[in-house]
Design a protein that fits this description.
Blueprint lengths: L16 E4 L2 E4 L3 E2 L1 E3 L2 E4 L9 H6 L13 H8 L3 H13 L5 E5 L17 E6 L8 E3 L11 E7 L8 H11 E12 L16 H7 L3 E10 L1 H17 L2 H7 L14 H5 L3 E8 L8 H7 L6
Parallel strand pairs: 5-8, 6-7, 6-9, 7-8, 9-10
Antiparallel strand pairs: 1-2, 2-3, 4-5, 10-12, 11-12
Length: about 300
Amino acid sequence: MRDLLPILRCPTCGGALGRESETYACAACGPFLTTGGQPVLVDFERSILEREGFVARAGASPIPRRGAPAALKRIFKGRNAAAERTAGAMNARLPKDALVLVVGGGAVGSGAEELYGGHLELVGLDIYATPNTRLVADAHDLPFADESFDAVWVQAVLEHVLDPARVVSEIWRVLKPGGLVFADTPFMQQVHEGGYDFTRFTNSGHRWLFRRFEEIESGVSGGAGSALLWSIRYFIRAVTGSPRLGAVAVVPLFWLRFFDGRSRAHADAASGVFFFGRKSAESLAPADILQFYHGSRSDR
């Protein structure tokens, strides 16, 4: 595991960091917190995270209960085939010990397992510390030098940030020329993780968000069947007031997700969409986005 100090930067001023006792410090901005032995490289003045609350939680997640139990998730969501396919492609494309930033890496995303334990070196960050992370940071101000990473993985994260465009700009900045990115983001999903849920994207909107990247593959990570499951679950939850009852009620309907497809029609009704691409020096033009929509897949 390589030392990250040479690529770490202050999230406030962008200056290089040095070690100070058991943490890191910026010569201009001072030392940073640590939690569980991990540096907390957050500018609390510009972040949704509050310093006092973070300290009171000892670096734990600000969301008391992060989703349904794992077994129920497997029944409800199944496997993320797009993530599995892309994880395999990243392993095949990237050299040994390539440095991969996992934004929102507090938990391993569905289908991302192949990235872990292989030949890639992962640097996980989140707004809370876990064994999967090496530091705590706010993705709006990634605490890394320009062109530090070979790839970035950002799965089920962009709906939980206040300014997705700024986060994607930061991803572009820290990627090496030609570096890879994978993003998986909801379209037709109800609010989850409470107050930390802000945004949704159509397939075209997601592509425009990543307009400074060349597309390798994009499309549906969860189709119309999965979107219907989400709606039924939250309908029951809204009527009964019970999140647990809503989750349990859709278990017998798990088969609806087998109707998911990858066509443009499914993209128009998708539960989630994904983008896999590489950093580019060029950008899509506004007119290109209409061509992107009409060029979407028409097969199942």
